[in-house]
Amino acid sequence: MEIAEKVAVILAVLLLLVGAASSFHLQQIQKENEPLLEGDIITVNGKDMSMVKLFEACTQREVETVKGNYTGVPLACLINESGVAEPETHDYTIRAADGYEKTVQWDDMLNGIITEDRYTVFPTLPRAYWMHDVVEIEVK
Amino acid sequence: MKKLIAGMIVFGSIWGFLECSLGDWLHQYNMSALMVVAAVFLMAVTRRMFAQPGMQMGMALIAAILRHFNPIGGACLVCASIAIVVQGLAFELIWVIPWHKYQSMTMKASMGVVSFYTIAAVSYLATQIFTPLLTATPHLSDLAGVMPKIFAHAFIAGLAGAVALPVAHTEITIHLNDRFYYPVAAAVTAVCWMAVIAGV
What we know:
- The complex is a heterodimer of chains A (140) and B (200).
- Chain A is of the alpha+beta class and 140 residues long.
- Chain A is built from 4 helices and 9 strands, in the order αββαββαββαβββ.
- In chain A, the strands form 2 sheets. A 5-stranded mixed sheet of chain A has the order 2-1-9-5-6. In chain A, strands 3-4-7-8 form a 4-stranded antiparallel sheet.
- The longest helix of chain A is centred in the N-terminal third of the chain and has 36 residues, at 3-38.
- The mean pLDDT of chain A is 91.
- Chain B is built from 7 helices and no strands.
- In chain B, helix 1 packs antiparallel against helix 2 (32-50).
- The radius of gyration of chain B is 17 Å and the shape is globular.
């Protein structure tokens, strides 16, 4: 085997190891978040809140998107229910069960909704911001 | 040259059509890595057939434009188009490395892993950087949470690349008479564009 081939093999193995370790890490994060998903809990500003109660407290809204219509409660209502003071002055990091996260502003929270199956929909943002299995909203 | 441009347009259109149909479907099931595999495979096959550096970048630009015409996937137009262009660019850069002179299966399989993995990771990362820059407020801290997902996504593409690149480099020659080549290329291109614009 020539040197170039050896380098290619080593590089390939290293990349696959990083990928495998990342997949394992994601599985661990998912496992850690399973109790939140099963218990129908979402953590907002460090407070565990019941999804069922939030859906009772907030008025559901239908949003029209290019991917179709979605019904859920406004994300802004979740923030208000959690008791965040001056919500318009903060940024919000939305985190999914697999660790994927995106930070949005208050205007986006006003437009966005979370569906009963924990899918966040932002009609005014690209789909990179739409997340399945949301487990936490961190207030920054 | 005419043949090359026709090839670039037809394969770019096929790629764009696949992104709008198969890509959207795979995205729903969190299997976007397979779309990257299909795209890199298409680029590798066409590079072997036409042996023209730069052609795949052209294909990527056509696919990205076609993705932009997709009326169904509107919300993800920016990120998908960025990913396609970055995939074309990354492919061209990796194919500058003179690994092709080694014809062994070891080299093809290893470079399959390296190229498919790198292209998948870089294009995913680019969407995470450029989409917020173009459409919202970028937050660097978001990248830390996304990195494991990017590597896990690239892992699937890398594994598939170990098989896909040797297959793409298999010597299969299809001779198509010029009399048929251009009409077939035009017809396939037209079908792809009409299907995408119609939202199929």
